[in-house]
Amino acid sequence: MYALQNSVDTLHKSVTPMSENGFIRFEGVREYLPVTELFKIYKTQTLVAKRQAAPRTKNNNILRLIAILRHYIPDLESANITCFASKTGAGIPICDDWVAHRGCNEMRQARSIFSKAWIKRYKQLGIDTSYFSNWIALSLEGVQVTPFDANRKELDTIRSKCEALKDSDKDMYLMYALAYGLGLRSSEIQRARFDDLREDFDGNKLIRIHDPKSGGEYQDRPCDPSWWDLLVSYKTSDDALIVPVQEDRITREFPFFLRRICGVVDDRPVHRLRKYCGHRVMRENGNNAFVASKALGHSSVEITSRVYVGMPTIQRSF
After folding, report:
1. Strands (DSSP E) found in the chain
2. Low-confidence ranges of the chain (pLDDT < 70)
3. Angle (nearest 5°) at CA 291 between 182 and 279
4. Reduced to 3 states, what is the DSSP secondary structure of residue 18?
5. What DSSP state is assigned to residue 145?
6. How much is the pTM?
7. Same structural domain for residues 17 and 43?
8. DSSP state of 126
9. Tens-place pLDDT, residues 5-25
10. Half-sphere exposure of 183 (CA within 13 A, CB side)
11. C-beta separation of 85 from 133 below 8 A
C-alpha cells in the first residue's frame, strides 16, 4: 500500500518514491502519517469533480476537530493518524464518547474531513484510512431546524430604526442594506465591494460573493433591484469596499445596535435580517421558494423552505 510522506521525512531504504501534487508517495515501509500532515492535505488538496469547500470553511472544520482531539490527546502536535482509532478507558471510541457527552453539533462540523469524497481522495494518495473507521461509521442525529417566525412589530421597528441611520451613520445603514436588502451574512458584508454589484446579459441585478459558504471560487446571486440600485448610488469606486470599516463595527457594533435599539433578541441579529430578506423575496415573488433560495445563495430549495421563509401565503378562494 502506498503511504503519503513529505519529501523531508526519513524512510526505509527500500522505498520507491512517486511524486504527486507537491507531495511524495512512497511504496514500502514507513512511519505513520502525522496528524498535522493530514490536516495540511485536507486544506491544500482538491476533490475531483466535486463541490469544493471554501478555504475558510476547511480551516474552521480543522479547528473544530483539533478542539475535540485535544480533549483526549493533549500532545496532538506529535500524534499520528492512529490517534483517530483511540478509545477511552471504558473502551469507547473517542468520537462516540464526545457525542455521548457533548452532542452532535461540533462533531458534525469536525467530521467533514472524513466525508466519502475525502476518504476516497485519501485512499488515492495512499493513506491508510482504516484508522478513521469509527469516525466514518459514527451515527449523528439530523440537524434540528427551527422554522423562521417572522414578527411584524419587530420588522417594523428594525426598518424604522435602520432607515434613520441613513443620515446619522452611513456605514451602518449600508450594513443594513446588505443584510436586509440583499441577504448577506456578516462575513459577506465585510468582503463586499462595489464591483461585486453587476448585471447579467438579461439585465438582472446580481451580487458576486467570493469564497461563498457553499464552496467554489464565487457565487452570483440575484438581487432585489430596488436595494441593488440603492447600494450602487453610494458607489465611490469599483474596487472600494461597500462598508469600509473595521471588522468590529460589523461583527460587534451592528449586532449591538440591532439588539439594544431595534429590540432583536436573536442570538445572531444580523442573520435575522438575512432571514427577513428571504421572507420578503419569497412573498414579493409569488411565494416562490426557488427565487428566495437563489437570492440567499442556498445549495437547495429545501434549506430555504425549512429555515428562512416561513409559511406560504394561501390566497382566498371566494
Report:
1. 2-5, 16-20, 23-27, 197-199, 205-210, 218-222
2. 1-31, 49-51, 142-145, 308-313
3. 60
4. strand
5. -
6. 0.65
7. no
8. T
9. 333 333 333 334 444 444 444
10. 28
11. yes
